[in-house]
Amino acid sequence: MRTLLFTLLIISCSVTIQAQVITSPNGNLSLKFELAANGIPTYQLSFKQKPVIKPSTLGIETVDVASFSGGFTIGKSEQKTVNDAWNPIMGEQKTIRNNYNQLLVTLIQKAEKDRFIQIRFRLFNDGLGFRYEFPKQENLKYFIIKEENTQFNLAGDHKTFWIPGDYDTNEYAYTTSKLSEIPGLMKKATIDVHAQYPIKTLAIQTPSMMKSADGLYINIHEAALINYPAMSLNLDAVNFKLSSHLTPDGLGNKGYMQTDTHTPWRTIVVSDKATEILASKLILNLNEPTAYKDVSWIKPVKYIGVWWEYFVAGKSSWAYSSENNVKMGDDFSKLKPNGRHGATNENVKKHIDFASANGFDAVLVEGWNVGWEDWFGNWKENVFDYVTPYPDFNVKELNSYAKLKGVKIMMHHETSGSATNYERRLDTAFKFMVENGYNAVKTGYVGKIIPRGEHHDSQWMVNHYIHVAEKAAEHKIMVNSHEAVRPTGLNRTYPNWIAQESARGTEFEAMGGLAPEHATILPFTRLMGGPMDYTPGIFQTDLSYYNPGGNQRVNTTLVKQLAYYVTMYSPLQMAADLPENYLRFPDAFQFIKDVAVDWDDTYILEAEPGDYITIARKAKNKNEWFVGGITDENTREANLNFNFLPTGKKYIATIYADGKDASWNKMPQSYTVKKLTVNSKTRLKQRLAAGGGVAISIRLL
Ligand code: NOJ
Ligand code: CA
Fold this sequence. Notes:
Layout: H1 2-18, E1 20-23, E2 29-36, E3 40-47, E4 50-57, E5 60-62, E6 72-86, E7 96-109, E8 115-124, E9 127-134, E10 142-148, E11 151-154, E12 159-162, E13 175-178, H2 182-189, E14 203-205, E15 208-211, E16 217-223, E17 231-236, E18 241-246, E19 255-258, E20 261-262, E21 265-271, H3 274-279, H4 282-285, E22 301-306, H5 345-357, E23 362-365, H6 395-404, E24 408-414, H7 419-435, E25 440-444, H8 459-474, E26 478-482, E27 497-500, H9 518-521, H10 558-567, E28 572-574, H11 579-584, H12 586-594, E29 599-608, E30 612-619, E31 624-631, E32 636-641, E33 651-658, E34 671-678, E35 683-688, E36 693-700
Parallel strand pairs: 22-23, 22-28, 23-24, 24-25, 25-26, 26-27
Antiparallel strand pairs: 1-2, 2-3, 3-4, 4-11, 5-10, 6-7, 7-8, 8-9, 9-20, 9-21, 10-19, 11-18, 12-13, 12-15, 14-17, 15-16, 16-21, 17-18, 29-30, 30-31, 31-36, 32-35, 33-34, 33-36
Helix pairs in contact: 7-8
Bound molecules: 1-deoxynojirimycin and calcium ion.
């Protein structure tokens, strides 16, 4: 009896010792870590006493050594508080507060010769970040990951804004449903996207946005994805449990690790206000500051391009000829021109003139280089060499012309998924750029990846994108990647990786259309990870204009396209429509010319995922403010409170509003432009048309 009592005492005592609790600096969030039976690590998270994550297990399964899944005892456990601030090179605000309470637990596997790992938790006011760390030690050097088993055991059947889990693409349309409804909707949601690889088990992608029945907003994603595959989330739709699902390589392995190392951060942003989800800087805070010494060459970019004309039926083509079996090394000047090539000297000059006359920094030119004849869908290794222009594109002449006009040409490197070919040619390609005066490149990864067996989101490719960003930095080149792995805040560490696409952007308005609610979801999902090159600014939204009889359209009003410059954050923004369309609506175009792309401060005025977003921002180092408000397919009244303006001064606001008869599918080009004197006490009710928006610019009077 005495022995039994004694044993019980030890157990209860060890249980208490093993549970660790920390709270967020404001006390709203509480994290509990403890070891469950068999030494399995678990954590749980609550917000204002409501469960966000119920007890959930942590662990990593390995291929070659014993797994990091159980048999742990707690070694050291340390806590600290950090409260400092930093200034991003470009961003939504000048200064970002970094305030968290940290718990670092060391977990020992006695049965594995005292092998140990650490789990680091950082609890901010806006959520939790945690990661697994593998310090250097005698009995752990190399290991291969079979799967990460991080659970997110949710407290209910939340409303979720989701896209299907896929190793190769993020370009799906969003579905909104309860978690329990996802199994029944998955097939329909898995629409055709080029080079897709939908996960075979039930899984959704991150950033995954959820709302509980009692009004908690929960966003799950990751931060600082380096040397590790991207994470999707397996779904147990009966018990509302999500769990990590890493992207495999060709052998089915997930990650190749060597100590000293760690995983990316798993992030859970939580609030009872949707506006605070959009205001969260948790993911950026969890990324490392940049190691770049000189960042003076990294600048915001507002650009136009020889681009949209390729999408609007029949206008022009990337390819110079209509041959479809060409090879690197062929004499492209011998090809018969198809007469529709877009990147001609003449067309590019026209764009340079327009950019220069209207204050744009750059002109993106796609289709300038040989190889576009059969770039698509052939899983071909050597499609492009990145240095040979088509015969009607004169690199030197055009770059001198651009220089004379005070603008840059933006380079385009479509890889068609052949990362091997791109890596081999990268140095030469970047040198070629520098020699010819380019300072920014748009990269693209349309197609199945080479090395064959790799995926857009696997560890090898994650390392590839970072390699490109670092190499580009050596040449003082900014990178805007399309079809790369979704961002995780790495623009802090690699600030020249200025923006990414990695979602369904404007191009899809020409290929089936985007739902009017799409852009009210993206800031809560894709943009949680970083800036998006959404390519807004389409004024000619009815695309039958180019293709009489067709029914393709951009599913917004013209004014909503203006609002995107504020609601869709990016320090790189395109005015994507054709120059001639801007000339048809000069008063609306004025907003695009005026709008800032880099900010001192941001005020999320109203937001509800899937419904509406209204944001105000103050331009960097200027007394100018811009407001953007968007709605889904429903009309709405935005409540604009101008209390973000400094008090005691008068301002002139120019309000770009949907016309009374406007809607996304009828009269989308109906709008009004009005001036109004405002101050910090002004309140304004503004009607937004169905699929519409509002855009406002404000200056000191
Ligand atoms: C897909 C990109 O998203 C698009 O912007 C580009 O024009 C094409 N690929 C061709 O590279
Ligand atoms: Ca794309």
